[in-house]
Amino acid sequence: MLAHAFNDARYALRQLRKAPGFTFVAVLTLALGVGATTAMFSVVNGVLLRPLPYPDSDALVRVHEIVPQYGLFSVAPASFLDWRQQNSVFDHVAAYTTTSATLAGPSGPERIQGMQVSWDLFPLLRVPPQLGTTFTAEQDKPGAPAVVVLSHSMWQQRFGGDPGVIGRSITLNGVPVTIIGVMPAEFYFPTRTPEFWRPLALNPANASRGGHFLGVVARMKPGVTLDRAGVEMKAIAERLATQYPESSANESAKVVLLQEQIVGAIRPALLTLFGAVGVVVLIACANVANLLLVRASVREKEIAIRTALGADRRRLVIQMLSESLVLAALGGGLGLGLGYLALTPIQTLSAGSIPRVADVRIDSTVLAFAALASILTGVIFGLAPAWQASRSGVAGVLKEGGRSSTTAGGRWVRSGLLVAEVALSIVLLTGAVLLLRSFDKLVNVDPGFDPERVLVFQVSLPGASYATPETHHTFFNRLLEKLEALPGVQAAAVVQTLPMRGGYFLSFDVRGRAPAKPGEGASAHYRAIGPRYFETLSVPLVRGRAFTAADSDRGQHVAIVDEAFVKKYFPNEDPIGQGLDIGNGTQGFYDIVGVVGNMRYDGLDATADPTMYVPMMQDDFSTMWVLARGKGGDPAALAGPVRQAVREIDAALPAYSLSPLATIVSDSVAQRRFSMLLLALFAAVALFLAAVGLYGVVAYTVSQRTREIGLRMAIGARPAQVLAMVVGGGMLLALIGVAVGIAAALALSRIVRTMLFEIEPSDPVSYLATAAVLLVVAVLACYVPARRAMRVDPMVAMQGTQ
């Protein structure tokens, strides 16, 4: 058995060496299909299929609070503490929140990103430190000595991998902190961003029930199901809502698997792209099958002689399939290399838009998939030529004197495969055009502000040096004065949360209206801003006035709202002069003094939610975003001057997260851009393969009909008529494929519905554009062999058939 297989493989290799042109085209076609599939499967495997990098990760869940005004929400500290104490379904319940700190060093201050976590996070994840220890319960209490656990990358980059780092002190935000541990290189939580972890140190005596800012993760006990955990946590949350109606009325809880929490949003897009690349493989298979059918018809005499000498149909089929599998192995090997080379561009392109993309790699699972894909493609595209070869008639072929012949069945198979190629290409092209048109609409959405020529950065004031609101206000006012004095700066402002970076919501009551029931109050985005914020971003003032320096913490509290706020809460009233109690710890109401245009804070594809603004002097934030609008040119050129302006006020403070605002706006659509570009690439490959397939079929048809064409021209047919006949035959197949493809695309259009923005999956312009592109390519593919047919010499053609 093995000897037969080895001999078949050797014979197949000899046959392929005899036809280098055919072999090159077939292997390259398969490599494109297998390479694209392998690369895409690597992404699907690394992001969706591979377990999270924690032992028994299928028991890890994320627990959310459900807040009536906001839906699925972060967790209040008091709720977390109650959950941890009252549940019976979890081994551990841990909380975390993002943070950052200024690290003092010999090269100057540097801002680093980290997490504050409850002590049991590391036992919950079951990942021990590489060096030292993690936190204890005693270290996670207010007033405990300051300690920190470092990430492996921070340990390597800032301490040179020194094993003696344990016990060393570093300065974070002006406070000495002791290093007690270093985590392994492969560990991260919840993303790869944190460079350090510090204790959360919640105080049960004054834990808030109204401020929701914690992420909560838990490990289910053995035997506990997700449904059971969800039912118990819902019951606990609703019991707490009844117990504390003023802060938690009507609140509930929801439990989701941690892996689903991380990758659930990207799953539909990745599976759609994986399906798309599967279509590319099918097109590649159809293309190679057509090439093999042509090759089989050319080898009919050889096959007939072997049959006459006693080869049975089974041996012929095995031999032809062996050639297909050898081709598939060659194409699969090259495709695996192409897939490997494609990983880095895919990871670069998708950075920031796909979670866990750094985990994507070629591993044993991917290798097994590539091998299986190669074998399956070999079988799929080898069946048709093997079937045709086994049905060749011996006598008929030998009578022809060695010339190949084409049966009606063979022509139908080749035509059917070509129609399938065109139809599948239409499906991919339609999806790509829909995403392209959708993305064009998205990037042309007016965000409500002008991001061009604006540089943004953050400054965080450490509590050790800036302990009061007055010191915060003084610093930021001085910084704005310095920035506006720079020759390249037109205007500068501060805001506590940037556009496109999510929302900060507050509930409020309206003066003169009955207070809402707990959990049912009005809510809106909330921003503390500097006096020239709207001017810096070119946001129009619709009515009333903007903030001024006179709007200080000693004056009447004032607010500005946007048009979405007015439409929702004052549709039939004048908002100017209305009072808002925002419940942020201040006394009295904020009087509305102005109305501005809407800004999109949650992304270009999100509606503009109601938003209120207050002067930074009337609310206190120690960390603020600073915006500087340049007078012209690249705003990145302002990076050096703004860093210097911060250093001139306080040399211990870094300006960090510097970026043009236009880049942040662009990054907000990165996931949609990734999906569009990748599907467009697959569609381009499909279009190329369909064109090659159409060219091959028409060219072969011309070669088979040389005598007929010669006869036609001998009795008076003009070259233009021959051109029309040949092109018409190819275009008929293309038109059938286009019709089938459009029907299939319409049937499958619901798959891409969630990936579209302001465009219907049945958009007629997209379908017409797709059909037009493919038909133009089809005409070109048919024209080249048709030109060859026009140049047939009737005398030569007739002589060649004697």
Shape: elongated
- Radius of gyration in whole Å, from Cα? 34 Å
Major sheet attributes:
11 strands, mixed
Distance between the termini: 45 Å
- Low-confidence segments, given as residue ranges, are 393-398, 400-405
Helix content: 40-55%
**Mean of pLDDT:** 85
How many helices? The count is 24
Q: Number of folding domains?
A: 3
Number of strands: 22
Write down the oligomeric state. Answer: single chain
Class from helix and strand fractions: alpha+beta
SS strand fraction? 15-25%
Textual characterization of the structure:
With 802 residues, the protein is of the alpha+beta class. The protein is 50% helix and 16% strand. It is built from 24 helices and 22 strands. A hairpin with a 3-residue loop joins strand 1 (60-67) and strand 2. Helix 3 (77-86) crosses helix 6 (226-243) and helix 20 packs antiparallel against helix 22 (719-748). The two termini are 45 Å apart.
Q: In short, what is this structure?
A:
The protein is of the alpha+beta class and 802 residues long. The chain is built from 24 helices and 22 strands. It is elongated, with a radius of gyration of 34 Å.
Any chance you could write out the topology, listing elements then pairs?
Layout: H1 2-18, H2 20-49, E1 60-67, E2 71-73, H3 77-86, E3 90-103, E4 110-117, H4 121-125, E5 131-132, E6 147-150, H5 152-159, E7 169-172, E8 175-182, E9 196-199, E10 215-220, H6 226-243, H7 245-248, E11 252-257, H8 258-263, H9 267-298, H10 300-308, H11 313-350, H12 364-390, H13 394-399, H14 408-443, E12 454-460, H15 469-485, E13 489-495, E14 505-510, E15 522-529, H16 533-536, E16 541-544, E17 558-562, H17 563-569, E18 579-581, E19 590-596, E20 611-615, E21 623-630, H18 639-649, E22 656-660, H19 661-667, H20 670-704, H21 706-714, H22 719-748, H23 764-790, H24 794-799
Parallel strand pairs: 4-9, 6-8, 15-20, 17-19
Antiparallel strand pairs: 1-2, 1-10, 1-11, 3-4, 3-10, 5-8, 6-9, 7-8, 12-21, 12-22, 13-21, 14-15, 14-18, 16-19, 17-20, 18-19
Helix pairs in contact: 1-11, 2-9, 2-11, 2-12, 3-6, 9-12, 9-14, 9-20, 11-12, 14-20, 14-22, 14-23, 15-18, 20-22, 20-23, 22-23
